[in-house]
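Figure caption, in words: inputs first, then the predicted bound structure.
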Amino acid sequence: MFILPKNVTIIEVGPRDGLQNEKKHVAEKDKLQFIRSLQEAGIHEMELTSFVSPKWVPQMADAKAIVEKSERVGRQFVLAPNAKGAELAQESNANSVAVFVGVSDSFNERNINRSTDESMDALDPVIAKLKNDGVFVRACISTAFYCPYEGKIKQEDVLELCRKFVSMGVDELSVADTIGMANPVESYELFSSLKKEFPTILITAHFHDTRKMAIANIFAALQAGVDRFDTSAGGLGGCPFAPGATGNVATEDVVNMLDSLGIITGIDVEKVCIAVDGISEHVSHPIETGMYRLYKNSNR
Ligand code: HMG
Ligand code: MG
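Bound structure (3-hydroxy-3-methylglutaryl-coenzyme A present):
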């Protein structure tokens, strides 16, 4: 028998992961409209933006305005790679912060200019302060299956990094297939181990869809007991420092699959497509997800 939970939580990452790699500058007002329309679609957990160096990721330079001007609906995450990011996040009154570190050194050196150990040592006091101030902390674990520079990652190395984050007090582990190379067996195995080892921590799966295996990987993760998934409206996304990382799995396609299985997300697929339609004219490539294409065809 298949394991099908009653409810699944979708964490929308479009405004952050979706837009960070976008070549064309997206205006602050268009980002805010995208966020508003996703909230109207029923999304209650969302990564809004990231407090990172504007020299490294110019698209996120308006982070402060985005947080301050968006309406508070549920849990609104901002990414922070270091103490400065966390400080800026707290100044803007963000109630949830996502820190991020990859399993592999080579990826971290390119993404955050530090090795894995250096990043973890620097994040220890940052997480302690956030927790002390009552902030919800999510840890994003990149390159949990494959690294663009080092190839296949050992499951034990992922578990070890997660143990460190858990001992630092994080509330959630969002475990990522950064370059979309994992297959459903790998997804099932890693997420089963994570659910077994960390029964009281929120475990979220974050799949990029480079090889169109993300939906299959989500189904496999569901079988491992995962009921939280990061997805991006319009399938937008990708990390600028991970060659080969194309978009995240599309929110509208994942919600449609969950709907068809009778799993409740509280999200309206058609309204997500309206949000996608709104942002589509501000990105530099066509959006061609399954449900968005159907929506466009039926509205011709
Ligand atoms: P660095 O150059 O080593 O930083 O970069 P530094 O500490 O030496 O500081 C250099 C300058 O940056 C200074 O300014 C700092 O003030 C400033 P200057 O004196 O030159 O004017 N600075 C900052 N400014 C704003 N916000 C900050 C900040 N920190 C320092 N937080 C750093 C290190 C981490 C800052 C840089 O490498 C960086 O910003 N990296 C971000 C990379 C990124 O955003 N990647 C994408 C997100 S992760 C992802 O997409 C993966 C995920 O989706 C999961 C998955 O799919 O795998 C989450
Ligand atoms: Mg990502």
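The beta strands are 9-12, 45-50, 75-79, 96-102, 136-142, 146-147, 151-152, 172-177, 202-207, 228-231.
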